[in-house]
Write a structure and sequence with these properties.
Largest sheet: 7 strands, mixed
CATH class of the largest domain: Alpha Beta
Number of strands: 22
CATH architecture of the largest domain: 3-Layer(bba) Sandwich
Shape: globular
Strand content: 15-25%
Number of domains: 3
Number of helices: 12
Structural class: alpha/beta
Radius of gyration: 24 Å
Length: 448
């Protein structure tokens, strides 16, 4: 048998790579892993975790205001961005350390430098050393897309938001997806004047139309300005230090900060993949089969670098399935149906299964049930903001094929409800469940 330095070499230690390395090592494999930036990847370092902490911080803006309606004597409060930024980055450092400790405890050899593929069974490290492995796993994730427009370097991406020295008074966010809408809500709550510019007239493509329209309505009421059907033509720094952003389809804007949130592309540049025969698609994603195997049998990929579903829990599940199948004698594949997702906007929205439009295209008959209500807390706080829950059912058998929500704690509520949708429960099953009163979640079993 051919001798290799390792059974598995993982390039990229984000959510998918960390899970695959740890599980493979727990199955007895000799594992090495390389990371050129920080262990934890996008989610831990510059994505889900620090973003959610900013979301929590942003919610205090309304909570402190509402508290007065509930009898609390709240003095005028001042938000200090530097304090939150420092505490968030400190938490990120703590989590990165925990990831490293976990991998080391499982016997994974950590290599904190860039690694590229040098052959079907070889990896070249930045220092020049060549390492051999029976299997190579690419888990390098994705990176923000920056448009090709004059002055593009004046803008930043979601990677840099967490390191801003000060909050911008006026910020333009380019994009209509979840990253754009989440940071629009965060920065608006912190006091920035936010303008969101999108090249189409649709935000959150892929989510149910009624739910995303409700978010647009609420966001506008909160003071976020939306400009649609616009594309950038030029970005210039003015003599006063501001940014002059020229657009086609909309008037130009002068802002303090421009944030690009127009999508993410697989991070496969200069990894040596095509040179050894690994096929990439038009976006640069690694083409893999159901077992995460590329066109080179010894090279595999999981997570955003495959561009299947760019979600952290999916990457984790793929890493687990990969390691169990290859090293644990437990063949498994990821089920990509009924994946729940959420947008941590203000208010948040969450979804699982088919939208109404998707269901009407796929099924012969559809029944739709909704609950459009004012949350009890909002009533006493004097807010007109309304929540909306929507259930999409197959009319032939009553099976719930989609569930969509916008309102406080929607992601927390939907996680449990997603189990019911995936299990194929019917509207009757929901109706027969006694409501938990008074709660927002009870609307799930009271829809008409």
């Amino acid at each position: 048998m051919t001798s290799f330095d390792y059974d598995l070499f993982v390039i990229g230690l984000g959510s998918g790579g960390v899970r695959a390395a740890r599980v493979a090592a727990s199955h007895g494999a000799r594992v090495a892993a390389a990371e050129e930036h920080r262990v934890g990847g996008t989610c831990v370092v510059r994505g889900c975790v620090p973003k959610k902490l900013l979301v929590y911080g942003a919610h205090f803006a309304e909570d402190l205001h509402d508290a007065r309606r509930f009898g609390w004597e709240v003095p005028e409060c001042r938000f200090d961005w530097a304090t939150l930024r420092h505490n968030v980055l400190t938490e990120v450092n703590r989590l990165c350390g925990l990831y490293i400790d976990t991998l080391e405890k499982h016997g994974v050899d950590m290599i904190l430098e860039r690694a590229v593929v040098a052959g079907p069974h070889e990896v070249r490290l930045a220092g020049g050393r060549i390492v051999s492995a029976r299997h190579i796993l690419i888990a390098t994730g994705a990176t923000p897309i920056i448009p090709d427009v004059p002055g593009q370097l004046h803008g930043i991406t979601s990677n840099e938001i967490f390191h801003l020295e000060a909050l911008p008074a006026r910020v333009l966010i380019a994009g209509g997806g979840y990253i754009a809408n989440e940071f629009a809500g965060i920065l608006n709550a912190f006091g920035s004047q936010v303008t969101l510019v999108n090249r189409t007239d649709v935000i959150l493509r892929g989510y149910d139309e009624q739910i995303r329209d409700r978010l647009l309505q609420i966001a506008r009421a909160k003071g976020i300005d939306f400009r649609f059907n616009a594309s950038f033509s030029r970005i210039e720094r003015t003599a006063d230090g501001f940014l002059d952003v020229s657009m086609s389809g909309q008037d130009s804007l002068e802002v303090d900060q421009l944030i690009f949130a127009i999508g993410r592309r697989p991070k496969t540049d200069d990894l040596g993949l095509t040179e050894v025969g690994v096929d990439l698609d038009a976006m640069g994603a690694i083409v893999v089969d159901a077992d995460n195997r590329s066109t080179v049998p010894s090279i595999h990929a999981v997570g955003d670098v495959t561009n299947r579903v760019q979600l952290t829990p999916v990457a984790i599940r793929e890493g687990q399935a990969f390691a169990d199948t290859l090293f644990g004698n437990k063949p498994s594949r990821v089920d990509y149906s009924f994946i729940p997702s959420a947008v941590f906007s203000h208010p948040p929205l969450a979804s699982v299964g088919m939208t109404e439009v998707q269901a009407r295209k796929a099924l012969s008959a559809v029944h739709v049930f909704t609950s459009d209500f004012r949350v009890m807390k909002n009533v006493l706080a004097g807010r007109n903001e309304r929540a909306l829950y929507k259930m999409v059912c197959n009319a032939e058998n009553g099976v719930v094929v989609g569930l969509h929500m916008i309102g406080p704690d929607a992601p927390e509520i939907l996680q449990a409800a997603a189990v019911a949708v995936r299990a194929g429960l019917t509207k009757a099953d929901f109706d027969q469940t006694i409501a938990l009163h008074p709660s927002m979640a009870e609307e799930l079993v009271l829809m008409k």
